[in-house]
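TEACHING EXERCISE
Course module: macromolecular assemblies
Task: Read the component lines below, then compare them to the predicted structure of the full complex.
Student: A.B.
Group: 4
Components provided:
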Amino acid sequence: MKYEEKMFVSGNEAVALGVCLSRPHVISAYPITPQTVVVERLSELVEDGSIDADFMHVESEHSALSAAMGSSAVGARTFTATSSQGLLYMAECLHYASGGRFPIVMMNANRSLALPWSIYGDLRDSLSLLDSGWIQVYVEDAQEALDMIIQGYKIAEHKEVLTPFMVNLDGFVLTHTYELVQVPNQQEVDHFLPPFETVNKMALDAPKSLGFSSTPQDNLEFKYQQHMAMMKSIEIIEASDREFGQRFGRTYGGMVDAYKCEDADAVLITLGSITGTARIVIDQLREEGLKVGLFKIRYMRPFPVNEIRELGRKVKAIGVLDKDISFGYEGTIFTNVNSALVGPDSPKVTMNFVGGFGGRNISKAEIAKMFHDLLFAMKGKPYDRVNFVNLGVKTNEIRK
Amino acid sequence: MKSENRIRLNAQNISDNEYFFGHKACAGCAGSLAVRLALKVLGERTFTALPAGCMSAVGFIYPQMAFAINAMISTFPGTASLLSGMKAGLKKLGKEDVNIVGFAGDGGTADIGIQALSGAIDRRDRVIYICYDNEAYMNTGIQKSGLTPFGTKTTTTPAGKNIRGCLTHKKNMFEIVAAHDIEYAATASVGYPEDFMNKVQKAAEASTTSYIHVLAPCPTGWGTPTETAVEIAKDAVDCGLWFLAEYEEGEFKLNRVPKEFSSVKNYLFQQSRFKHLTEDDIIEIERFRDKKWDRMKSKWLNEK
Amino acid sequence: MIKPTLRNYKRPVYITDYPTGPNCESGHLVDKNSGWRTFRPTINLDLCKGCLRCYLLCPDGVIFKSNSKVDVDYDFCKGCGICAHECKFKAITMTKEDKE
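Instructor-supplied answer key:
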């Protein structure tokens, strides 16, 4: 395939380009909407010789990640991609790959979970697997998707990190939308991302036993080590963002990306592509004189605790927009944000806005209403902790 | 190496190296014998994967590592997919002159691992898959698997007044695998160790996937003395309840056709898992055996 | 000869003493199996013909070739008795271990 400096591609194709530039040895993937185009493009890139990789046609997502672990265990750079039900079918292997310290990079197209069936987007798939030990980044556009695949390998394979890396793209909204992206030069990428080296691999000259059992005497230590590696990754994520910026001229802010938060009273926290819409709303509300800001969480794991605490000290109200819910409680991002905010400096108001399930649109007007709700609550108006946005019907409690 | 030049392996000429040693398997475990012998045939340039199950539980308890070669525990359903991934990675790293072998139990093969195994054979991945069949989930405490024979008492098929043990016969894994048009598949028994070793050697020569299904008695789960595992594995073949066969170049071959079967009853009643069986049950078991043999003989014995 | 061997193993003191993730040198033994044994195989070298059947059939690989006959690694023998049971020359006897 001929690269051009600028290409008009979908989010899925941008991911495929990022994978191609990262020179993986093995790609193992199973198709699922809306990830399929990644798999199709990658098989074309392998076919035409653009990638010197082995494309494995596995028979399930479980096998996709199991095979990825096999190739990582012998020292090969490996890629896989999935979505939704497929991610859940991989769940066993997700924990296995992080526990085994296999720095696999995976793209996940965020999609609703059955039942009821829906092929459209929300974040319930990846957020339900926050505890699987993977680094999770949520990107906003195709360019960031491409760039984060490359950075993903850099971060995951760092010898003090050795932790798998999941790049999350909103299904359809990002995966299927075409944008103009800058395609980095291969030589530059090769300088940024050297070949994969790890001590955690099998070798003929020094045979290794991997993925072993531990007794209660050692298990906690291996898990502690895994946690410390994830904590260490914060530093590596930030360094990688800076180095990427120096080399390619694009930085993303590291763990988070704040927009007009400096003097804001009320801030909305978002993940992924909805941030773009929310940014427009901020500009509109700022023009009306409202002191509002937007705070995009890029990494859910490791979690940007310090950044959120700092935000909490500055603002009076924080809203969290969750395209997911932990039924019987609240949105998962909200829980994470609130736990980071615990302390004397925490803001007066935190509100959870839950919606956008199964591809349901969240409009600019809905986002503007969230800010108004936050500002009213800040001034003392009673408010609910968890608020479903854009419910298409009246709830029964209102029926008289 | 082609078959004409192949030296038949035996106790005298196999490697002195011990690649599976110091493990914590129960005394008299035939599964560990199958692994040990297979690795002696395959040698040091071997990468192995074993799913959750007896052999992984006894071979890799940190810091006691009983495999002398590159080895890894796979997920329970993921033996074959992990092997395939290892193969793909090694190929791309320029290391093709190696053996990649998996050892999974009967549950890990015929039940939870059958999908990944089917996928690997379908892709024609050059890996060797060895199923050590001890006829139940032994590591978890003797529960019925798809390869538990009719009448077996297990902890999930108790032998009581209403039901006398396992109600189903063994799943026909060998022919399921063969139906994929696999390059090489074989059945074996630790009771015929030379036959098993030579089949492992043949499997290693395949250029795509190969499969060996080796009967490996479990004294703990079968209720037999620790010293009889090999003998009883031979009895299983001699009484016709197990068979030695190969599938190669699209043809089935029976390696051993007993002129007369030894006593099924004698085989069964050595094992406490079958002690409850009635005369009628034994007639049913013999009937099933005879039907299977009639079919195998009529279809596979190429008497031209 | 390649074979897992007993090592001097010191338990980790610092977290960095652990390997990065579950990875360990293969064939790394820290513990014997002799404590499992109730019966001990003894080889009568006068009767042994060096056929190596016991060596072939030992699930633990503890019988090794020695002066064209065999010997037993008692550190790892679990005393299953397959060797004695399978010996065609009755050259191996199983005797009860004297337990202190």
